[in-house]
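thought: user wants a sequence for this fold. calling inverse folding tool.
action: design(structure=
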C-alpha cells in the first residue's frame, strides 16, 4: 500500500474510535454502605442513609436523612440493597420487615418482604435484601426505605458489611 492510503486508513480508524466513545457513555456506578447503626422507627417507611461511599462515578448520591440517588443519564438501572437489623428478641412470627424503592418521592417497587421470624425464645437478626430493575429518566431520584413493625424502634447493625446499596446503569 502506498503511504497516502495508509494515512487515510489511520485517520478513518481514529474517527471511528472517536464515534464509538461518543456512543458509549461512561458506566454509572454508585456503591455505598452504612455502619451508623441507624434507628428505624416502628410502623413507618424510613429512608436508609447509606453514608459511606465506596464508589460513585458521577457524584449521583446525596447522603443524610434525605438520602437519594439522582440518575445522571436516562436508562435502565439495577438496584441491589441489603440491610440487617441488630439481634433482638423483639420479632414475633406475625411481624415483618420490608425494603421498598421510591422514585421521585412515590412508592415504586417492593424490593423484598420478610416475615415469620419468631425470636421470642432466642435472639434473632432480621435481614432484608434484594434486587430490582427500574427505568429512570435523567434527573429522576430514587431512595430505598425500610419498614419494620416489631413493636418499637430497632437499629440497623453497625457494619457496612451488612448494610449496603449498589446502583448500576445496565442499559
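)
observation: tool returned 171 residues.
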Amino acid at each position: 500500500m502506498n503511504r497516502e492510503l495508509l494515512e487515510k486508513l489511520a485517520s478513518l480508524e481514529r474517527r471511528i474510535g472517536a464515534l464509538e466513545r461518543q456512543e458509549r457513555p461512561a458506566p454509572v456506578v454508585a456503591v455505598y454502605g452504612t455502619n451508623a447503626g441507624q434507628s428505624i422507627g416502628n410502623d413507618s417507611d424510613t429512608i436508609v442513609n447509606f453514608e459511606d461511599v465506596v464508589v460513585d462515578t458521577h457524584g449521583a448520591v446525596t447522603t443524610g436523612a434525605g438520602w437519594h440517588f439522582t440518575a445522571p443519564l436516562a436508562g435502565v438501572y439495577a438496584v441491589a440493597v441489603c440491610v440487617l437489623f441488630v439481634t433482638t428478641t423483639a420479632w414475633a412470627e406475625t411481624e415483618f420487615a420490608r425494603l421498598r424503592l421510591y422514585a421521585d418521592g412515590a412508592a415504586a417497587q417492593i424490593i423484598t418482604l420478610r416475615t415469620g421470624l419468631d425470636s421470642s425464645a432466642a435472639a434473632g437478626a432480621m435481614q432484608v435484601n434484594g434486587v430490582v430493575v427500574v427505568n429512570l429518566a435523567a434527573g429522576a431520584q430514587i431512595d430505598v426505605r425500610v419498614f419494620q413493625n416489631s413493636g418499637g424502634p430497632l437499629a440497623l447493625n453497625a457494619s457496612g458489611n451488612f448494610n449496603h446499596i449498589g446502583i448500576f446503569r445496565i442499559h
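thought: summarizing for user.
answer: Here is the designed sequence. The chain has one domain: 27-169.
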